[in-house]
Write a structure and sequence with these properties.
Strand order of the largest sheet: 3-4-14-9-10-13
Shape: globular
CATH class of the domain at 91-107 and 225-422: Alpha Beta
Number of strands: 15
CATH architecture of the domain at 91-107 and 225-422: 3-Layer(aba) Sandwich
Number of helices: 19
Bound molecules: pyridoxal-5'-phosphate
Strand content: 5-15%
Helix content: 40-55%
Largest sheet: 6 strands, mixed
Radius of gyration: 20 Å
């Protein structure tokens, strides 16, 4: 299996190379040269299997000879062993034909753990046998950073630096990043918003001298390995409803478009998905774009669902690449226009996108009202991101097709918004109850490329 860049000029890579690299050297994102299909028998065979077995079947065609079957099974087992629920991704019912897929039972209480725990295992294995090491730099609106630090802390072959927007992450998110004591992980509080963090990260990748000097690697949601790990739970949940013989729909609270794009990959692999619904908060650039209004950047309006406060949705480039018939030149042109403020999507491409994705948005008031309503009528305490999803799903679900809404974080990760809506302050699970007592370690840094580069170079392990 080869991986190609969405901008068409970077060299093709193997799975291992694409995973260790992150961003392509032409500024594009790696995607598989073709999408493997699973047979109906393979999908039907997943019914009743463990999450780990489903994960092996779904991901195996993508990894080529990077790992042997035995190695890959072991990495998967290690990745999910620390989850607080045997099903890994359990389903609960909200209403007739509406179900919640709980993706928050990992060590940092958000769905990012599904991908990051596996990426940690895969990096360690691939680097260990080469005797190589890398510097991972990540930008986060809160959950990617905590999941990355948790997955990589104490591993031998990596230093990890996480850029997060100072003052714009929840206290639980911040403490998950600042309290690990291992010296190979570093939390950097940047004076800026998430898009600034993401822009500085891209700058570092495009600075080839720095990139090669520190052996920069990325684990942001642009990393193909992360998208791949997220394809699994679309299969594990859909088979509970009778796939491949029955269609299901999914609603996905979306920011960087990684999680929803994983759903699209599942569909392309043969999973019968009827609707794939993009749910945004008030930062609704994706909803507007999918409704045909072009992709034009404004400013970020901080919301109670901060992990979706975004204007530049990185993985949307992968969706555009397919919508433009895999024309890397056309995508490169759009991304140049995006640098100047935005772009319009061609008539043909918007039709393709609308064929794959539906969309909706939830305002701040609607999100809070849904948290209140869900507790009163569905018996479920929702985090604000999941509430955005449930609200949009309730608006758009149709017929008797089961709707599965992805619950992307545990309510205790965003206790202020949950308490404001319900009067209940959700407690942390017992396994992390001492989070607020642990000492914090972080560095404030300017939103400045040179300052960030200097800090990273000074703090590398020997
Ligand atoms: C990251 C995140 C999202 C958005 O996921 P994308 O893959 O970036 O679209 C939604 N909710 C939570 C809680 C998150 O951490």
């Amino acid at each position: 299996m080869r991986y190609i860049s969405t901008r068409g000029t970077a060299p093709d890579l193997s799975f291992e190379e694409a995973m260790l690299t992150g961003l392509a050297r032409d500024g594009g994102l790696y995607v598989p040269a073709e999408i493997p299909k699973l047979t109906a028998e393979q999908i039907a065979g997943m019914e009743g299997q463990s999450y780990e077995d489903v994960a092996f079947t779904v991901m195996r065609p993508f990894i080529g000879d990077t790992f042997t079957d035995d190695e890959f099974r072991e990495l998967i087992a290690n990745a999910y062993a620390g989850f607080g629920h045997n099903a890994r991704a359990p389903l609960v019912q909200l209403a007739p034909n509406h179900f919640l897929l709980e993706l928050f039972h990992g060590p940092t209480l958000a769905f990012k753990d599904f991908a990051m725990q596996l990426i940690g295992q895969m990096f360690q294995k691939a680097l260990g046998r080469k005797g190589d090491r890398v510097t991972i730099v990540g930008a986060t609106s809160g959950d990617t950073g905590s999941a990355a630090i948790e997955a990589f802390r104490g591993l031998d072959n990596v230093d990890v630096f996480i850029l997060y927007p100072h003052g714009r992450v929840s206290e639980v998110q911040r403490r998950q990043m600042t309290t690990p004591v291992e010296s190979n992980v570093h939390a950097l509080a940047v004076d800026g918003d998430f898009d600034d963090c993401q822009a500085r990260l891209k700058d570092m990748f495009n600075d080839f001298a720095f990139r090669d000097g520190v052996k920069l690697a990325g684990v942001n949601s642009i990393n193909w390995g992360r998208v791949l790990a997220q394809v699994v739970y679309y299969f594990s949940s859909a088979v509970s409803f009778g796939a491949p013989d029955r269609e299901v729909s999914f609603t996905v609270p979306t920011g960087n478009f990684g999680d929803i794009f994983a759903g699209y990959i599942a569909k392309r692999m043969g999973l019968p998905i009827k609707d794939l619904v993009v749910a945004t908060n008030q930062n609704d650039i994706l909803d507007r774009c999918l409704k045909g209004q072009g992709y034009h950047k404004g400013s970020v309006h901080p919301s109670i669902s901060p992990s979706m406060d975004i204007q530049v949705s990185s993985n949307f480039e992968r969706a555009l690449f397919d919508a433009y018939d895999r024309d890397g030149g056309a995508v490169a042109q759009l991304m140049t226009e995006l640098g100047q403020g935005g772009f319009d999507v061609s008539q043909g491409a918007i039709q393709v996108l609308q064929g794959h994705y539906k969309s909706g948005r939830a305002s701040e008031e609607e999100t809070t009202a849904m948290i209140t309503h869900a507790l009163a009528t569905m018996g479920e305490l929702l985090c604000p991101h999941s509430a955005v999803g449930v609200k949009v799903a309730e608006d758009l679900r149709r017929g008797d097709t089961p709707m599965i809404t992805l619950a992307t974080a545990h309510p205790a990760k965003f206790p202020d918004a949950v308490e404001a809506a319900t009067g209940i302050r959700p407690p942390l699970p017992a396994r992390m109850a001492d989070l607020f007592d642990r000492p914090e370690r972080l560095t404030r840094v300017a939103n400045d490329l040179d300052a960030l580069k200097a800090h990273i170079e000074r703090n590398l392990s020997a």
